Amino acid sequence: MRALRQRAATDERVAGWIFVIPVLVGIGTFLIVPIGMALWISFTDWNGLSPPEQAEFVGLDNYRELVTAEGDPRRDFAMAVRNNLYYVLGVVPAQTAIAFILAVIVNQKFLRGKGFFRTAYYFPSITSSIAISLVFLFLFQRSGAINQLISGLLPGAEFRMNWLDNADGVLHNAVGLVGVDTPPAILTDTSVLGLSLWQWLSGPSVTLFAIMILATWTTTGTMMLIFLAGLQNIPPDVEEASRVDGASALQRFRLVTIPMMKQPLFFVLTIGLIGTWQVFDQIFVISAGGPQKTTLTPAYLIYREGFQNFSMGRATAVAFLLFALIIVFTLVQRRILKPERA
Amino acid sequence: MRTRPRRLAQLLVLLTGTALAVAACGSDFADSDSGGGADDDDQNDAGQTDGAAQAEDDESSGDDGSSLTLMGFSSGPAEDEALNAIIDAYNEQSTNTARFNPVPEYDTALQAALAGGSPPDVIYVDSNRLPDLVEAGALAPADGRVRNEDDFYPSLREAFTYDGTFWCPPKDFSTLALVYNVDMFDDAGLEPPTDWEELATAAEALTDGDRTGLALVPEYPRWGSFMFQAGGAVTDDEVTEMTIDSDANREAFEFLRDLYAQGYAATPTELDAGWAGEAFGQGRAAMTIEGNWIVGALNNDFPDVNWAVTELPAGPAGPGTFAFTVCYAVPAASENPDAAWNLVDYLVSDEALLQFTEQFPVMPGRESLAGAWTEAHPDLGAFLTGAEYARPFQFVPGFAGVVDTLDDGIQGIAAGNREIDEVIQQVDESGRAALGG
Q1: Which of A46, A159, B146, B425 is the residue whose CA sits 20 to 30 A from B195?
Q2: Is B34 inside any structural domain?
Q3: Strands B122-126 and B67-72
């Protein structure tokens, strides 16, 4: 009897391996091996043109140039991290909050035409990001719909903001409004990674801000769908019980709905964080890293260094630093939210 | 729990196995590639030693019924049509069959093709990319493989000569010139400007409400021509030393900064256009500085605009402009270099160049064809005149980051949020680092 059970277990194990081998081969070929090769390239000066085995091993030089050595590469990398940091800080909370609110709204039982609203909100997410970026190019033109809308809302003033070619930092503009035009010396004289503190504190440029609006608009639909699935997973009896206990609608939302949504919330924040650190297509179509490098992001920097400036070694080094950044941010966020294990 | 480490070990073995298998395939390919590369080098050496004789041999040996691919990029259907016409003509008179394969995102595609070890037979190489490709050992030299090499403009031959070797013959070239709206000039009673002062005056006089005098992209490939006109440049001619920190460059930057600050010049985005030619065609600018490519765009998209072209206004140090050019190159790893050179030789022959440039208004790289081209395009003479003093857009490998920094600074100067001295200092530093001291 025991021997029989053991044989069954062995058979199962063999069958299991046979079933997973196709996936393992796929992952090995298209993920593990390329990652290993990229790691090796980041320690070489490979130009991306000659056969890779001719590249020279340069040790940590690529990383040193990006992080410690003074010069263009470090300044560009710092610039890219700064821009993307503002992008993450703006887009992740915005898309999460809006998606949550939309999910709650389209989950209401009394809402008519639910199907229409769900489709409408989800539509931007399934449209090509290139196509949407092109539409935004027109919307944000100087004579485009956005400026006309703002002009209409502010009677008497003709608003002609050059959204897509404006390197001024949003925070700089904001403190400029209250009369701070010249930064205090301590901010201009102290520099971190080749950028002065004043540059670090610029906020996203107006152009990046427009791209942030675009990104929020396109990703909200997907996030809404995840929240909606979560909301519909809340057993109706929990809500009924709280109703019987005499909880008001607001109390039900705050004390029942939100705690029950912790896992979808964690999931949405995590994929939002990872996705925003990898922003590329919108930048590629709308601004190509400009004006004045204010929409340069690590992902775009990888493309520029690797495919335009022929320094594949440096490009892969940026890729691994970006990987480390994403891991660190995800861990920090995980520590803060502490999702309970199901 | 006890079986867990073993399972992990199995997994690792499996993954390593896969990795090794893939790596083994990889190195097999690489070996055969480098083997092929070495053969090519031998052939090239032979080609270099007995130059002219070899060139004649190629005439017969390259015409061997091969099928050839020319990979390049395209500005649009007009250029495709013109190029396909000369390729058809080649296919008719040769036993080889050539095909044009225009790809989007050309630089990325080329990089993948070259690094992958089996590149197309003939590729486009921009003068700006040539040094990187040569340093990477990606190209086979053209020495002696193309008929009548001395007929190409010296500046173009120089643009495709690196390390003392001529690598590839120019496909065609374009220069920057001043394109102006004739009706607007007539209305204002102005003549086309010939120097900076007249340019500033004209730009001021023609700026009116939603219309600006000059639509100009703030980037080195445009502003550089003003630096040349002032007698400056980013580096010396050999690209060994930085010369950005000069009064001539400062003068050029100041002149342009003032034009933008006063609103007499504007960037295309400020004019709601994707590029300067569109702003000009829509009548939002009275002048713009662009190359030959603007001709087709204006004729197709804005046939009603009455425009003309004149040489760029001369600066304090005389005239100056850019020449942008692309060559037909044969990769070092080419499988059939003789047939590839046979095709290239045809594509840069007098009849092919003339046929192509008559249909598509870029200029042939051969000096002897200048007369015929001017006859075909009598209104575009200014582009060709510029060839006499034009300089190529070309630096050395590793310099691209410096140009990025310069473009960044130029955008800042145009937007009025960067100081000229600070930009010059930053570019100087980054250039010195790139050139090694």
Answers
A1: B425
A2: no
A3: parallel
Q: pLDDT grade, residue B107 (50/70/90)?
A: confident
Closest residue, chain A, to B408 (C-alpha): A292
Q: Which of B19, B270, B408 sits opposite A142 (nearest CB)?
A: B270
Say which range, A188-197, A226-235, B34-43, B234-243, has the weakest mean pLDDT.
B34-43
DSSP code for B95: S
Domains plus CATH for chain A? 2-59 (no CATH), 62-169+204-337 (1.10.3720.10)
Q: Please, what's the b/e burial string for B235-246 (b: 16 or more CB within 10 A of its CB; e: otherwise)?
A: beeebeebbbeb
**Which structural domain range is residue B110 located in?**
52-174+324-391
Distance from CA of B140 to the nearest CA of A (A): 13
Contact A50 B137 (CB under 8 A): yes
Average pLDDT over all residues of chain B: 83
The Cα of A191 is separated from the nearest Cα of chain B by a number of Å equal to 15
**ipTM for the complex?**
0.76
Give the pLDDT confidence of B281-310 residue by residue, as tens digits.
999 999 999 999 999 889 889 999 999 999
DSSP letter for A57, please. Answer: B
Smallest Cα distance from B291 to chain A, Å: 22
Please report residues of B whose CB lies closer than 8 A to that of A291: 411, 415
* 8 Å CB contact between B325 and B56: no
Helix (H) or strand (E) holding B136: none
CB atoms A50 and B267 under 8 Å: no
Most confident of A280-284, B256-260, B432-436: B256-260
